[in-house]
Amino acid sequence: MATIQELLLWGKEQLDKSGNEYAKYERKVLLEEVLGCNYMYMLMNSTEEVSQEKEQQYQQLIEKRCGHYPLQYLLGYAHFMDYTFFVEEDVLIPRNDTEILVEFASKVIEKRMQEKQDLQVLDLCCGSGCIGISLKLYHKEIGLILSDLSSKALEVTKRNLDKYGVDATLVCDDLLQGIRSKVDMIVCNPPYIESRVIETLMPEVKDYEPMLALDGGEDGLDFYKKITEEAPKYLQENGWLIVEIGYNQGDAVSQLLRDHHFLEVAVMKDYAGLDRVVYGHL
Ligand code: GLN
Fold first, then answer.
1. Is the dihedral of CA 258, 261, 264, 268 positive or negative?
2. Does the beta carbon of 126 sit less than 6 angstroms from any atom of ligand 1?
3. Whole-prediction pTM value?
């Protein structure tokens, strides 16, 4: 039987060999997951022997990770904003980059609540639900609709709603088609990768994350074209549209919003200094 320390050493060695830059961190969280204890415990009990069953579980996780299976799918969760969301292969793994969208949307909600109490927010292409659920957790008073084309994704959304005891309407349909009432804000992180670029992405993404959540068509703009065209019909007066974009899509997406009569259209950068969010209102 191997000890905690031996497993950690072995884990790091394997992950290093696979070219994993975060081997030291990942070997630790995976063992924490298997043993159900924290790192402090492992350090203080490094010579403790681990049962054969747990050792095998750990080995399997490390091997999968060495094959570039995403860490968050192995763990079954991802951190986003102040929360932890369940993730499975059916949903995109929430990205830190998306937090800038939530922070901005949150400021807009705060301001708009001064004029209107019962704000309705729609998270389109919700996936895990990380955007909408975070917003609702920050602003309990808002009404929330979460929509996705994938019913499997919505099962994960539902688990996240239940986890945080959040009320929301779930809609399974293509973009805005299933929406029956007007809303005050649409937030959306649509698929926006150009089809031909997908092959060049890291294996974690291209081999394991849902294509449906990534592929934005030939120029990556398919969803923005549809959303900007349809959104005005579903937005209340002074309604906001806030979308995440790829680093090179700021001009094209801003133009689409302007073409569809959105006002004060602007692009926001993420913490890496790259264009990341476009917004405007009616
Ligand atoms: N809204 C989810 C996220 O931001 C899923 C987005 C998607 O599936 N394209 O992670």
1. negative
2. yes
3. 0.95
